C-alpha cells in the first residue's frame, strides 16, 4: 500500500523545497560520475539551520494551523501509548452515547485513573461518526457521570481537550447544551480528586471549558485554547474572517502566551514540526507531564484540591494598573 502523503503547512514550504533539492542531488550522484558531496553537505547544513529557525520562531497563526492539522494525534491515538488496560464506558444514562467524547477507566504507571477526551475523525466517514469532535449535551453528561464515578472511587481524572467547540445545532440546544456545559463547570469545580486538563489540539469555547476546570491545565506547545476561533473573532471585530491571522496574534491563544499569563500551569513541548510527525515520542512527553503534575498534586486533601482549583480560576483575569 502506498504511503499516505502528509499535508504540509504554508510555513513549512521552504523546508519542503530544500529537502526536495537535496533528494534530487543525491539521486543524481547515483547515476552520474560527479562528486556533489560538498554541495549536498552544504544544503543539509542550510536545511538544519532553516528548520531550527522556522520551528523556533513560529507565529500564532502557524501554531493554529498545526493544531488543526488533519493528521494531528487524537485522544484515541494517545490512549494506548500513555495509559494501560483502558476500558471504554458508554452513555449518559439519560439520552444516549455521544461518540464525540470518549471516556473510561485505565491505569497510568500502575495508578487507576479515569480518562475522558474529545474525539474527532481523520477522514470524512470518521468525522461524521464523531460529529467533527463537537459534542452534544449527552457527551458532557457522559463525561460528568464518569467524573463522579472517579470521585466515588478516588481516581484522578485526566481530560484530553481537542474540539472546535460544543455542537451548536438545534437538536443540541433542545436537549440542553448550555445547561450540560454549565453543570460540568459547577461539578468539576467541586470534585474531591485531582483533575488534569490537557489541551492536545484545539480548545474551543465552552465545548473545551466543559472538560477544562482542572487543578492544572496543560497544553501541547502547538495547541490553542480560546473562547472563540480567530476567524470568528475577526468576523466580529473587523467584519472580515480573512483577518484571522491578525486576530490570532491579538487574542493570545497559544500555549506560550497562556503560560506567560498564568492561565495554564505547564506547556508540553512538541516534537519538531508538530505532534503528527512522531506520535509515539509525543506520547512519551505527555506521559512525563502527567507524571509531574500528579506528583505536584499528591498529598493534597479533598478540601485542598477544591480550594486550589477555586483559587486558580479566581486569579485568572486579575490585573493591576
From TrEMBL:
Q: What GO biological process terms are annotated to this protein in UniProt?
A: fatty acid biosynthetic process; malonyl-CoA biosynthetic process
Pathway membership:
Lipid metabolism; malonyl-CoA biosynthesis; malonyl-CoA from acetyl-CoA: step 1/1
Alphabetized, the UniProt keywords read: ATP-binding, Cytoplasm, Fatty acid biosynthesis, Fatty acid metabolism, Lipid biosynthesis, Lipid metabolism, Nucleotide-binding, Transferase
Main localization, broad class:
cytoplasm
Query: Which organism is the protein's source?
Result: Planococcus rifietoensis
Name the record gives this protein: Acetyl-coenzyme A carboxylase carboxyl transferase subunit alpha
Report quaternary structure and partners: Acetyl-CoA carboxylase is a heterohexamer composed of biotin carboxyl carrier protein (AccB), biotin carboxylase (AccC) and two subunits each of ACCase subunit alpha (AccA) and ACCase subunit beta (AccD).
Query: Function of this protein?
Result: Component of the acetyl coenzyme A carboxylase (ACC) complex. First, biotin carboxylase catalyzes the carboxylation of biotin on its carrier protein (BCCP) and then the CO(2) group is transferred by the carboxyltransferase to acetyl-CoA to form malonyl-CoA.
Q: What Pfam families does the record point to?
A: ACCA (PF03255)
Q: Which residues form the CoA carboxyltransferase C-terminal domain?
A: 42-296
Identify the EC number(s): 2.1.3.15
User: Family, per the entry?
Assistant: Belongs to the AccA family.
Which GO cellular component terms are attached?
Answer: acetyl-CoA carboxylase complex
Q: Give the lineage.
A: Bacteria, Bacillati, Bacillota, Bacilli, Bacillales
Amino-acid biosynthesis listed as a keyword: no
Q: Which PANTHER family match?
A: ACETYL-COENZYME A CARBOXYLASE CARBOXYL TRANSFERASE SUBUNIT ALPHA, ACETYL-COENZYME A CARBOXYLASE CARBOXYL TRANSFERASE SUBUNIT ALPHA, CHLOROPLASTIC
Tell me if Cytoplasm is a UniProt keyword of this record. yes
InterPro entries hit by this protein: Acetyl_CoA_COase_a_su, ClpP/crotonase-like_dom_sf, COA_CT_C
Q: Which reaction does it catalyse?
A: N(6)-carboxybiotinyl-L-lysyl-[protein] + acetyl-CoA = N(6)-biotinyl-L-lysyl-[protein] + malonyl-CoA
Compartments reported by the entry:
Cytoplasm
Coiled-coil boundaries: none
Q: Please give the Gene Ontology molecular function terms for this protein.
A: acetyl-CoA carboxylase activity; ATP binding; carboxyl- or carbamoyltransferase activity
PROSITE patterns in the record: COA_CT_CTER
